[in-house]
């Protein structure tokens, strides 16, 4: 458990606590999470290629096979310039990639998955950045006026926390930004192979 998890468990109200006490705890817990995140210390499940060490620091995965797979994906994108190109060539070469499996940060090896490649290539963590608040839950009414919730991706200007040079990256921040421009350009041009999906919004 991270430091925040231990702190919250210590002060978590009992099952018999009043609704007011539980509400106060949840509000305080939210503030604590944001404070930890602003310092780059909020420990959440990490994408493939990274682990938390015993000191609460984010480190590259000690598994050389995992690191090599991540590095290969970024090299292929630098060479080919499209997510679809990376997807096709990895599949043709029989290369597997690490995929998240379960809520506790575990991963499994899999044939290339397009959406997983896209998430990896647009994630700023691989450029050494700690981020928090990239997504936001929105409430809306459906066609029958029933309340619903959906997840919205925020623009970079809306992220709650962005700490560059937080940990060792697989690519530099300059390369990350160049990659995002390329992916965005591919999206606007509708770059795709035969039957391939668009590159995806960032």
Structure write-up:
The protein is α+β, with helices and mostly antiparallel strands and 202 residues long. Helices cover 41% and strands 17% of the residues. The protein has six helices and eight strands; from the N terminus they run H-H-E-E-H-H-E-E-H-E-E-E-E-H. The protein has helices at 3-11, 19-38, 64-80, 83-92, 114-122, 173-189, and strands spanning 50-52, 58-60, 97-100, 107-110, 130-132, 135-141, 147-153, 161-163. The strands form four sheets. The chain has a two-stranded antiparallel sheet. Strands 3-4 form a two-stranded antiparallel ribbon. A hairpin with a 5-residue loop joins strand 6 (135-141) and strand 7 (147-153). Helix 3 crosses helix 4 (83-92) and helix 4 packs across helix 5.
Quickly list its features.
two-stranded antiparallel sheet, about 15% strand, about 200 residues, 6 helices
């Amino acid at each position: 458990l991270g430091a925040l998890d231990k702190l919250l468990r210590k002060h978590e109200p009992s099952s018999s606590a009043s609704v007011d006490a539980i509400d106060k705890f949840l509000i305080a817990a939210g503030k604590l999470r944001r404070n930890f995140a602003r310092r780059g210390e909020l420990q959440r499940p990490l994408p493939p290629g990274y682990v938390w060490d015993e000191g609460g620091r984010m480190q590259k995965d000690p598994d050389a096979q995992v690191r090599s797979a991540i590095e290969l994906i970024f090299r292929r994108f630098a060479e080919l310039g499209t997510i679809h190109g990376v997807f096709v060539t990895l599949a043709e070469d029989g290369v597997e990639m690490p995929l998240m499996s379960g809520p506790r940060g575990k991963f499994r090896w899999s044939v290339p998955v397009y959406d997983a490649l896209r998430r990896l290539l647009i994630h700023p963590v691989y450029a050494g950045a700690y981020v928090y608040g990239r997504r936001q839950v929105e409430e809306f009414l459906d066609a029958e006026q029933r309340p619903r919730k959906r997840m919205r991706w925020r623009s970079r200007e809306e992220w709650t926390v962005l700490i560059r040079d937080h940990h060792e990256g697989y690519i530099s921040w300059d390369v990350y930004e160049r990659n995002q421009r390329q992916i965005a350009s591919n999206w606007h041009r509708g770059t795709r192979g035969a039957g391939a999906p668009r590159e995806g919004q960032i």
